[in-house]
Amino acid sequence: MKKQSNQSQILRKVLIRIRRYWFFLTLSILAAAATVGLTLYAPVLTGDAIDLILAKGQVDFPGMLTILVRLGIVVLLTALFQWIMNACNNTIAYRVVRDIRDDAFRKIEILPLKYIDSHPYGEVVSRVIADVDQFSDGLIMGFTQLFTGVLTILGTLAFILANSITIALVVLLITPLSLFVASFIARRTFSMFRLQSETRGAQTALIDEMIGNQKVVQAFGQEQKVLERFDKINLKLQDCSLKAIFFSSITNPATRFVNNLVYAGVAVTGSLSVVAGSITVGQLSCFLSYANQYTKPFNEISGVVTELQNALACAGRIFQLIEEEPQIPEADNAHVLKDPTGQVSLQQVAFSYEPDQKLIEGLNLQVQPGQRVAIVGPTGCGKTTLINLLMRFYDVKEGGISVDGFDIRQLTRHSLRTNYGMVLQETWLRTGTIRDNIVMGRPDATDEQVIAAAKATHAHSFIKRLPQGYDTVITEDGGGLSQGQKQLLCITRVMLCKPPMLILDEATSSIDTRTEIQIQRAFDQLMEGRTSFIVAHRLSTIQEADVILVMKDGHIIEQGNHETLLAKGGFYASLYQSQFAPC
Length: 583
Description:
Blueprint: H1 2-18, H2 22-51, E1 53-55, E2 58-59, H3 61-110, H4 113-118, H5 121-163, H6 165-212, H7 214-219, H8 223-276, H9 281-322, E3 344-351, E4 360-367, E5 372-376, H10 383-390, E6 398-403, E7 406-407, H11 413-418, E8 420-423, E9 432-433, H12 434-438, H13 447-456, H14 460-464, E10 473-474, H15 483-497, E11 501-505, H16 513-527, E12 531-535, E13 547-552, E14 555-560, H17 562-568, H18 571-580
Parallel strand pairs: 5-12, 5-13, 8-11, 11-12
Antiparallel strand pairs: 1-2, 3-4, 3-6, 6-7, 9-10, 13-14
């Protein structure tokens, strides 16, 4: 019952989206009705033509010519209306698919990072691409065959009833068997297609993960284990796909068998009626043609039902994504942060990724404008989490964070984040030229400003050695650039924007020592007068910081400058000595 309810809810959501294109839907239904009407009229003309053949040498050729002309016109009109119907159906299907993909991509843009972090990228991609494609195929087939199928059944049955009650009773008695077979199989295919879709998503996620981390896989000799994981998912996909395809493939033969019983019943009953003189041979021919037309939609509809099961299963997964809770919306009176001085305050901040696993508790911090704040501590102590909270990638569970006296939850996210310059250990580039990647945060920058920023970060020399210099096109993973060169581009991007506040999270981790010293000088100039948060594992890079925060288990356990903390002989001193003590 729950599955049927879930399926009906998904269908209702699909119909709501289709309702937007009521004009094409109405036109499609009218064209389908015209197609069916003309298709049903053709056997009547054929039967009339047969009745004009009275005996050998007694054929009404003029009458037959008139009928053939009518038949030709009917065929042409049928083709025209069928083309109109298909064009409307394709328009509806592709526009609905376009709307769903738009909604899905827009939702991804406003989803909290918690969702993105907890779902494999490949699985999300599978929903937006593969599942929507499967849904589109089922929707097109449904529109194309469902309308004409239902109308053909109703129209044919009406004609048979009008001309022969006996033959109509034969048809009506056998029809429920066909409906029972189709519904019996359809009920069992939805869950199988849904499992198939979910498994396909897991497979896509694994492939995406392995391609993106192939160097790591090979470096640690994990090829065989990865193959075993892939084989396991692949076998599961094979199993659920075979079951889904098996049940869907027996639908057509099963209904075709029942439909052949209908045809045989009409043939026997009609032949007896001809012998009894109740109907003519031409009418019998017409009835037999209608028997074929009547049973054919059952085969098509049974196939459509199977495809719709798959389409609805895929639609359910994409609707789950679209209906995910978005990030907390901005307040109606959200303030736009302009030219901040860089005063940052954290009051009794508490945060955890999982409710039962506490991370940060009771964190207090006062940062004055222009201060350089270094954050150090062991892995997992909450350094990067603190950065995520400052940028409002995650919202605090308790307490608050303010910039220039404004709680960041009362600021627009855009204005908050544009006032931070952020360089992470993980580089991020997009497909485009070197210049496109540098000016991402400042599209109106001139070539002179771009070059000046690149020279400041010592990226200019390697950029000039590229085939087209600043016009060299790179891919999103940086193409042939080294990790250090990619990080230099990210640093240049921030150097060009010169935001009032900076966040440097292991910003020089992939750069050689000589270049690091040069970039550190550039950073010193950039950080002059700007509030800066520096996350570092190498303590040599943060000795000049105004304040060093030593974090452990989500708490600030020590606070002061480099000399003060060394003199205390506490946790910071032990960290420092572990890095610089002689072996």
